[in-house]
From TrEMBL:
<protein>
    <recommendedName>
        <fullName>Tetratricopeptide repeat protein</fullName>
    </recommendedName>
</protein>
<dbReference type="InterPro" id="IPR011990">
    <property type="entry name" value="TPR-like_helical_dom_sf"/>
</dbReference>
Length: 163
C-alpha cells in the first residue's frame, strides 16, 4: 500500500492472510487496523462500497479507548463516502475525527492523522478547517509557529490572515 505506485491487489492478499492469523492471536484493535487497511486497498481499486463496509466493520471492533484508531477509521469511512458522492456524510466523518483528535494529547501518530484530515478537508473545499488541521499536525509534531507575536498582529490587522 505504501509503494510508489501502490499495489492494492498484492496488499489484499497479504491483508487476507494477516486477518486469518489475527483472528487467532490478534486484539480487536489489530483486527480493526487490518479492516481499515483492507478498506484502503479496496478504495485504491475503486470499490468504495467494500471500503465503506471495511471501515464500518473496523469501527465496530473498537471501543472508545482506541481514539486514534477510531479517528483513522472515520477518515477511511469519510473517504469511502466521498467517493460514493455522499459529501455531507463524508464531511461529518472528517469533523468527528477532528473533534476527537482535538481532545487527544500530542504525538507523532496524531500529527499524521491531523495531516490526513487536513488533506481531506482541503479536497472538500473547507480550506479554513484544512489550515487548522495542518497547524495542529505541525504543532503535534513539535513544530511551532516561527513569526514573532508583533509581526503576527501586524499581518492580521492588514487582512493577511484572511488571504
Amino acid at each position: 500500500m505504501r509503494l510508489d505506485p501502490p499495489e492494492p491487489d498484492r496488499a489484499l492478499e497479504n491483508l487476507d492472510q494477516a486477518a486469518k492469523e489475527l483472528e487467532l492471536i490478534g486484539s480487536e484493535v489489530e483486527l480493526a487496523r487490518c479492516e481499515f487497511e483492507t478498506g484502503r486497498a479496496y478504495l485504491l481499486l475503486g470499490d468504495a462500497d467494500a471500503a465503506e463496509r471495511r471501515a464500518r466493520a473496523g469501527l465496530e471492533r473498537l471501543d472508545e479507548a482506541a481514539t486514534l484508531d477510531l479517528c483513522n477509521g472515520q477518515l477511511l469511512l469519510g473517504d469511502a463516502l466521498s467517493v460514493r458522492g455522499a459529501v455531507e456524510e463524508a464531511h461529518a466523518a472528517y469533523r468527528w475525527a477532528a473533534d476527537m483528535l482535538g481532545m487527544m494529547s500530542a504525538g507523532r501518530e496524531s500529527a499524521a492523522v491531523w495531516r490526513a484530515l487536513g488533506d481531506r478537508l482541503r479536497a472538500h473545499g473547507d480550506v479554513e478547517a484544512a489550515a487548522e488541521a495542518y497547524e495542529r499536525a505541525l504543532s503535534e509534531a513539535g513544530i511551532r509557529a516561527t513569526a514573532a507575536p508583533a509581526l503576527q498582529n501586524q499581518t492580521q490587522g492588514a487582512g493577511a490572515s484572511q488571504a
